[in-house]
Design a protein that fits this description.
By secondary structure, this protein is of the alpha/beta class. It has helices spanning 3-35, 50-61, 79-93, 112-122, 159-169, 183-191, 195-198, 216-219, 226-230, 232-239, 251-254, 261-268, 273-281, 292-301, 351-363, and strands spanning 37-43, 65-72, 100-102, 174-178, 201-205, 246-249, 306-316, 327-330, 342-349.
């Protein structure tokens, strides 16, 4: 064989080998992408940082998730500012491919004015979210954004239609993570009653049963929890819907966690954009700094951190008295005979393992769109 022919054969063989390796790599990446857990984050996304944005980041930072979108609902803050904070954090971490979808600006029934009258009769509520007098401003007004205003725009679609569309596109594959009031989910159910049964599961932070804490917010009203209380009619619709599985991270387990300066410093020491964002904008707020939504997110990613859970049946008090919006629960033997669903309620956790995962996730490289990062 002549030298030129030999070189041609070598070149062809090399090209074939490279093509095979690329094909294998693409097939492997495709298989890994298919194995990633699809999730829609429904969140009252106040910011910057804080429990809402930190939970969003934890779910995005995992190499095992495929975040289909973030649907936003008024809760801890107004919808307009929550959307802006969410767009900005995605811009800062390089994940503007994830759609941010605006949802409900107001609860289904409850109004600020009715709540003020209710408080005059039954006593003040510690946290009213966007309606809290000390932070209140008009709904469409964009509050200060120390992290800078976002360049990306929100999706044109509304949250309820997006939720319905996604579960039809990926039937029985999509986890709905709920970190705020359930208004968007209730609206999705009203659009399509099959929405809950087409989802894989509902995972939510909310409800309060019997939290053991010195926090005065729960001393006299242990059954009041903001996410369910802010839109009780929505929570009633969602909790009675036919989900395949419901997992609840209540106040009871949340109060066993704390954000501390030490924890912030550990995250801040990381070089990832998420870690730098947390290091710059996360800070302690008052005497109690529970990791509410972060715990719900990490427990979904790593269920082994939960050491105690029980099945309860759950609803919300819709009577317009002192208990309006409070959590109702039953055991199997004493539950109502109609419509209530079993809920897996978390009560205890391995806190050190949780904190370790919290830091590891936020300091890890951010997985990019369509790519699987090395764990």
């Amino acid at each position: 064989m002549k030298l030129g022919q030999f070189r041609n054969h070598i070149a062809v063989a090399t090209a074939v080998l490279v093509a095979c390796l690329l094909a294998q790599g693409q097939a492997r990446d495709q298989a890994q992408n298919q194995d990633r857990r699809k999730v829609i984050i429904d969140q009252d996304a106040a910011g910057p940082a804080g429990t809402d944005q930190q939970a969003i980041l934890l779910l995005i930072q995992s190499t095992r998730t495929d975040v289909l979108g973030i649907t936003v609902v008024t809760g801890d803050a107004w919808l307009t500012e929550e959307v802006a904070h969410t767009l900005r954090v995605l811009e800062l971490i390089g994940r503007t491919d994830i759609p941010v979808v605006p949802g409900a600006e107001y609860p289904l029934v409850r109004t600020r004015e009715d709540t003020e009258r209710w408080e005059q009769r039954y006593g003040s509520v510690a946290w009213l979210g966007a309606w809290t007098p000390s932070v209140y401003h008009p709904a469409r007004e964009l509050d200060a954004m120390p992290e800078g205003k976002p360049s990306p725009k929100a999706a044109d679609e509304d949250a309820a239609h997006f939720l319905v569309r996604m579960v039809h596109k990926y039937p029985h594959e999509v986890t709905i993570y709920e970190g705020g009031p359930m208004t968007n989910l209730a609206l999705a159910i009203s659009l399509d009653p099959e929405f809950p049964s087409l989802a894989k599961e509902l995972v939510f932070m909310g409800a309060s049963l019997n939290p053991q804490t010195a926090d005065p917010e729960f001393a006299n009203t242990p059954r009041r929890e903001f996410n369910l209380w802010f839109d009780p009619e929505a929570a009633h619709i969602v909790l009675r819907a036919p989900w395949k599985k419901i997992v609840c991270t209540p106040v009871d387990i949340s109060v066993k966690t704390r954000m501390t300066n030490e924890l912030i410093d550990k995250v801040k020491a990381g070089s990832s954009p998420a870690a730098q964002y947390i290091g710059k904008y996360s800070h302690l707020r008052g005497s109690y700094n529970y990791l509410w939504d972060e715990l719900a997110a990490v427990a979904w990613l790593e269920p082994a951190i939960i050491t105690k859970q029980e099945i309860r049946y759950m609803d919300v008090d819709l009577d317009r008295g002192a208990g309006y919006g409070d959590t109702l629960t039953w055991f199997d033997q004493d539950k109502p005979h109609r419509e209530v669903q079993p809920v897996e309620v978390q009560f205890d956790l391995d806190t050190e393992k949780f904190y370790k995962l919290f830091v590891e996730l936020l300091t890890a490289p951010t997985p990019q769109a369509g790519k699987v990062a090395t764990p």
